[in-house]
Design a protein that fits this description.
With 229 residues, the protein is an alpha+beta fold. It is built from eight helices and six strands; from the N terminus they run E-E-H-H-E-E-E-E-H-H-H-H-H-H. It has helices spanning 37-52, 82-93, 135-144, 150-164, 171-178, 181-184, 191-197, 214-228; strands at residues 6-10, 20-23, 101-104, 113-116, 119-123, 130-133.
C-alpha cells in the first residue's frame, strides 16, 4: 500500500521558518460518498491486513499502543446507565487483551485513505503509528463509519474478519469509545448510538438494511469524522 515518503526534515525551522517535514505527494482523493458502498467497505477493510502484515521496526522505534487520555472520565450527562460507563472506563484503563502486536496506523478511517478510480491509491497521516493489536485500527474506523449508520460499521468489520482471517475483539470498541469521552461530554451522541457500535459483526454475505436509530448515528458521528481527519 503506497504511503508518503519522507523527503526532508527541518527540526529547528532554520530553513522553513517553523519545524517542518517534506513528504512526497500521493495521487488520489478522499472519498466519503462512494458510488458502491459495499465494494468500498470491502476494499477499505482489505487495506488493514496489508498494513498489519508489515514487518515491525526495531524495538523502541515506535511506541506501544496506549489509550487516548481524557480530561474527565465521568459518564456523559445523558447516560442512562452510568455504572456501565464506569465499568467501560475500568476496562479501558486495564491492560489490553493478549493479542499479537502488529504495526498500527492508529488513525485509520476513510478521511486518511486516498482513492483513484475506485481503487485505494494510498494511506496518509501516519504520525500516530504505533504497535499493538490489529483490532485497535478496526475499532477506530468502525466509529468513524457510523456516519453511514451502524450497518456500515458492522459490514466493514465483517469484511475485515474475512480478509484478515481473524475475529474482532469487543475490547477495542470499549477502548475507542472511551477515547472519545471528552467529546461525548459536549453532548453529541447518544447511548443507543455507541452501544450499537458494539453489536456483533454480521457475515460479509448477509446484507441487510440499516436499523432504526441510524439517523442519530449519522449526526453524532459527523463530529467523529471531522474531528479526526
Amino acid at each position: 500500500m503506497p504511503t508518503p515518503a519522507l523527503l526532508a526534515v527541518d527540526l529547528t525551522g532554520a530553513g522553513a521558518g517553523v519545524p517542518a517535514v517534506l513528504m512526497s505527494r500521493l495521487p488520489g482523493r478522499v472519498d466519503w460518498r462512494p458510488a458502491d458502498m459495499e465494494c468500498w467497505l470491502r476494499r477499505l477493510a482489505g487495506l488493514l491486513p496489508a498494513i498489519h502484515a508489515a514487518p515491525l521496526p526495531p524495538a523502541g522505534m515506535l511506541r506501544p499502543f496506549a489509550r487516548d487520555p481524557q480530561a474527565s472520565y465521568r459518564p456523559p450527562a445523558w447516560a442512562r446507565y452510568p455504572r456501565v460507563w464506569e465499568r467501560a472506563v475500568q476496562i479501558s484503563h486495564a491492560p489490553p487483551p493478549r493479542l499479537p502486536a502488529v504495526l498500527l496506523h492508529r488513525d485509520f478511517h476513510p478521511g486518511n485513505v486516498l482513492w483513484r478510480r475506485g481503487v485505494a491509491s494510498g494511506v496518509v497521516d501516519w504520525q500516530a503509528a504505533c504497535t499493538g493489536p490489529a483490532v485497535a485500527d478496526v475499532a477506530y474506523c468502525r466509529v468513524n463509519l457510523l456516519t453511514f449508520g451502524s450497518s456500515a460499521a458492522q459490514r466493514f468489520t465483517a469484511w475485515w474478519q474475512s480478509a484478515a482471517g481473524d475475529t474482532y475483539h469487543p475490547w477495542a470498541d470499549v477502548a475507542t469509545i472511551i477515547g472519545f469521552l471528552d467529546d461525548l461530554h459536549d453532548g453529541w451522541g447518544s447511548e443507543r448510538t455507541w452501544s450499537r457500535t458494539c453489536s456483533p459483526a454480521p457475515s460479509p454475505n448477509s446484507a441487510g438494511p440499516a436499523g432504526p436509530g441510524d439517523q442519530d448515528m449519522r449526526s453524532s458521528s459527523d463530529r467523529s469524522r471531522t474531528g479526526s481527519t
